[in-house]
Amino acid sequence: MEHHVSIWPVLALAFIHFFGTRLRFLAGVPRSVWLSSAGGVSVAYVFLHLFPELSEGQEHVSQLNWAEQFLNHHVYLMALIGLAVFYGLERVVVEEKYKEKREVRKEPRHQKGVFWLHIGSFCIYNALIGYILFEREEGSVQNLLLFSVAMALHFVVNDFGLQEHHKDSYRRFGRWVLVAALVAGWGVGYVVELSHTLVVLVMAFVGGGVILNVLKEELPEERESRYWAFMLGAGLYAILLLSL
């Protein structure tokens, strides 16, 4: 199957990981209005563009014989799994931070294990997004652009969250690993063509992950997030999506 491929979208998303955390004006408390707005854009995309696609894709998933007897909404189950997986990983990281504060002696080896667990999970996440990006290039330029913008802003939110958790470890190692995972996932598209059913399930998993990863950055009280900025980003992108 011929597939018209452009390298620019994946380079643009990789660029976010390279330089996103250097945007110092986005750091600090109260939470930057730009980060809150970026989170709103990502969530609006998932609910108004990605989930409607999943609803259509549900027809393909329901044709799987092994799944018909299991549940009638496999696509949304995958979205729930994506949300639950990233919630669980976030709890592991947060609990380790609390332990650090309580204990006088630190355990660097254990901390390193948590770091790689966290980064490893986001590697899988980035690789899946990279593959979806490749698949999007087969469709319309408009769909590719909408997805790329939403994911670029989502990556900025993720970068600042990961940097807050892991500090220098993320800047020195983590972001490079995430770039490699993104490009690798995109490159897999050249050699592996997943069935439409599997692509739909991957999209569902990523959609659940996006929702959790945005909200976990917005909700903590100490962040002093700007609700109005989140709603502004979500509202404006929703208007754009509904008008197309």
Automatic annotation (TrEMBL):
UniProt keyword Cytoplasm present: no
Entry keywords, A to Z: Membrane, Transmembrane, Transmembrane helix
Membrane spanning stretches: 6-25, 32-51, 71-93, 114-134, 140-161, 173-192, 198-215, 227-243
Transcription regulation keyword on record: no
UniProt-recorded name of the protein: ZIP Zinc transporter
